Amino acid sequence: HMPDPVDVMVPRKVAVCEPGYFNDYGGKLRFHGKISTVLCFENNPHVRAALEEKGEGRVLVVDAGASKRCALLGDFLAETGTKNGWSGIIINGCCRDSEEIGKLDIGVKTIGTHPLKSSKRDKGMRDVPVSFAGVTFKPGSYVYADMDGVLVSDEKLEL
């Protein structure tokens, strides 16, 4: 999905996240789907609400402001997402219960782990564009993730 030869002056169909930005914690290392987003900071009510919905193969992308002071996702919410048909979760923040999350059939990429739960004070916002790791994730666009990185496309790509 890149021009051949690669030419930095030619518009790309995909945006590539900054290499090495995320760590893999989920039991599924390759995942993709339509993007749904949450914008929040150290609070996860919208993360919970999203994962309680039918995922229908979507990927939840959460911009937590790159906070490393608490975790927005634990094994219970990751299992909820698995049961509800989410393909994956990408968080610009931390998760906890990483050993248990690694046993679940869901992709999880975060910037790290933290043992402390998040608070529930401020809900944040749902399904708004969020930008981190050098790309913008827009609700309704598509994300493709594996152990090598994360790609974002406005249109569905043939795999």
UniProtKB/TrEMBL annotation:
Residues that, per the record, bind Mg(2+): 97
Top enzyme class: lyase
Known role: Catalyzes the aldol cleavage of 4-hydroxy-4-methyl-2-oxoglutarate (HMG) into 2 molecules of pyruvate. Also contains a secondary oxaloacetate (OAA) decarboxylase activity due to the common pyruvate enolate transition state formed following C-C bond cleavage in the retro-aldol and decarboxylation reactions.
Top-level taxonomic group: Eukaryota
Residues holding substrate: 74-77, 96
GO BP: any one term: regulation of RNA metabolic process
Source lineage: Eukaryota, Viridiplantae, Chlorophyta, Chloropicophyceae, Chloropicales
Pfam family of the protein (one): RraA-like
The protein's assembly and partners: Homotrimer.
Family that this chain belongs to: Belongs to the class II aldolase/RraA-like family.
InterPro entries tied to this protein: RraA (IPR010203), RraA/RraA-like (IPR005493), RraA/RraA-like_sf (IPR036704)
EC number, as in UniProt: 4.1.1.112, 4.1.3.17
A molecular function (GO) term: ribonuclease inhibitor activity
Protein name: 4-hydroxy-4-methyl-2-oxoglutarate aldolase
